[in-house]
Amino acid sequence: MKAVRIHAYKQTPAVENIPMPEVAADQVLVRIEAAALNPLDALVVSGGAAQFFNIQLPITPGTDFAGMIVEVGSAVENWQAGDRVIVWTDAGSGGGFAQFAAVPASACVTLPLKLSAAEGAAIPIAATTAWHSLFSTAGLKAGETVLIHAAAGGVGTFAIQFAKRAGARVIATASGDGIELAARLGADQVIDYTSQDFVELVHDVDLVLDLVGGETQLRSFEVLRRGGRLISTAMPPDTSIAQSFGVSASIFYAAPYAERLGELVSAVIEQEVTVVIDREVPLTAFADAWARLTSGHARGKIILKSEIFN
Ligand SMILES: NC(=O)c1ccc[n+]([C@@H]2O[C@H](COP(=O)([O-])OP(=O)(O)OC[C@H]3O[C@@H](n4cnc5c(N)ncnc54)[C@H](OP(=O)(O)O)[C@@H]3O)[C@@H](O)[C@H]2O)c1
């Protein structure tokens, strides 16, 4: 089968022909229809993820994907061949940028009929990060104002919609065609971060969702009201600086929420959230998808399609 692999960190991932995976007793074999790229995949390839995950090389990256179960392991009772599923694997296992993957049965949830495989694949890390950073970590409530940085990206496009549906006022930062996209998804105010200074335009917000880090994060403390919160997915905030502004600040990690994926997929459908797809790229043209991810300019999610389904 075809699969993207790296044999050493910092190697450019490339498509290879490798043997079909063997299916362990607690696993299912998924014929992959679509896989979503995440910045985490770039961290796996650079070696940066090795401090958080047990990674054995060579590895096929790709944690978020969707497809059809074609074989079940001897101990698996809750799935059968023909079931269509969304899969969220640990970054140490990956496997999504391929035609087939053997994954733990526990890593699968049903792909509802209302979602395409591409939409399903887009959900695990990006939507989970948006939802659980806003609500489980930051406790965003109706009537509050949230500033979302990088609102046109994979996490941001979900975050705008979840926050609006929860009754919050949303201020977004974006640039280029990301500005129109953020507004279309419901942002009440969109700041062009390339020509406008958000610190001059925004005051007393209740929450900042920082999807950028660095200078953007540091300067965000200035726009929070006293008692406000900053949640970052990009870089651990300096809590002593937060204290000096009278606000709280924390880093968010998506992994602990994997078991709640099914609930989140239902929320996407029930709340009629638009799954924004930047582009769909055939597995054999993986280099194009990778270039787009590493450019840092995606609008929503970049999707890899197995050529069987093109
Ligand atoms: N901790 C976790 O569990 C977790 C989970 C998911 C993601 N993350 C992290 O969260 C961040 C966002 O993830 P993602 O998947 O949404 O990334 P993404 O889709 O690659 O984000 C791309 C978007 O970022 C925007 N952007 C870049 N710099 C910006 C800036 N200074 N101000 C405003 N927008 C900016 C780009 O807009 P332009 O093209 O206009 O520049 C683009 O639309 C990444 O750092 C990722 O590693 C962490």
From TrEMBL:
Domain named Enoyl reductase (ER): residues: 10-304
Pfam families for the chain: ADH_N, ADH_zinc_N_2
Superkingdom: Bacteria
One GO MF term: zinc ion binding
Full protein name: NADPH:quinone reductase
Organism: Phytopseudomonas seleniipraecipitans
